Amino acid sequence: DCEYCISDNAKGSVQGVRQRYPVNRLWRRLSELDLRGCTASQKQLPAEVTTWSNASVARLLQGIMSSDGCVSRSNNSTVPTVNIAMTSVTLVNQIAELLAIRFGIYGQLSDVRTKGRAVMRFPERGYTANHDLRKLVINDRESVLKFTEIIGSDGDRGDRLTEKTAAIAAAPRLDKFGFHFLRSVVVGIGNTMDLE
């Protein structure tokens, strides 16, 4: 049900020669994909991901959301926001492209200046960020609903995503934007639109 997985921890041999230590097939695979030893800011998706089925791509993106994503809600919107932020500009751009091309899920990309700032997770230790972040924000109603249905997330993030989208999924509106036009009123020399 997935395109590639390593399912056992068998000892092995390389080119017919028995190894003294078990061959770590995950490390070998990462080496084949030129991903072994990459720092967080150098990560990228291997080219073969573009040949995977939609189900496998969705599972990959679900794992990324579970590790590097978050769900939030702004004060003035009933639509939750899905955020994925990483130091790898390439990886976040690839994720945004996969979501758009494969699933019709669109978001906005932005750069967040974090280099040199205190790391919020451990402020007492005095850690500072070594890189800026690349951030993907998905916040339009249709894309958030699609993301929840197709991609989702595991654990607490998945529960929050499902809980926050349940309210908008049950809304009577069927528009794509989370608001609808009420009326247009002429004020001065131009029209003013009332949106709900």
Nearest-angstrom radius of gyration?
22 Å
**Helix/strand order:** EEHHEEHEEHHEE
N/C terminus separation: 43 Å
Number of helices: 5
Strand runs, count: 8
| Fraction in helix | 25-40%
Quaternary organization: single chain
Content-based structural category: alpha+beta
Question: Mean pLDDT, as a whole number?
Answer: 77
User: Overall 3D geometry?
Assistant: globular
Please indicate the percent range of residues in DSSP E strands (runs of 2 or more).
15-25%
Query: How would you write the strand order of the largest sheet?
Result: 3-4-6-5
Largest sheet properties: 4 strands, antiparallel
List segments where confidence is low: pLDDT < 50 over at least 5 consecutive residues: none
Describe the protein's architecture and organization:
The protein is α+β, with helices and mostly antiparallel strands. The protein is 33% helix and 20% strand. The protein contains five helices and eight strands. It has helices spanning 25-32, 54-68, 89-103, 141-151, 155-169; strands at residues 13-14, 17-18, 69-73, 80-86, 108-112, 133-138, 181-187, 190-195. Strands 3-4-6-5 form a four-stranded antiparallel beta sheet. The protein has a two-stranded antiparallel sheet with strand order 1-2. A two-stranded antiparallel sheet has the order 7-8. Strand 7 (181-187) and strand 8 form a beta hairpin. The longest helix is centred in the N-terminal third of the chain and has 15 residues, at 54-68.
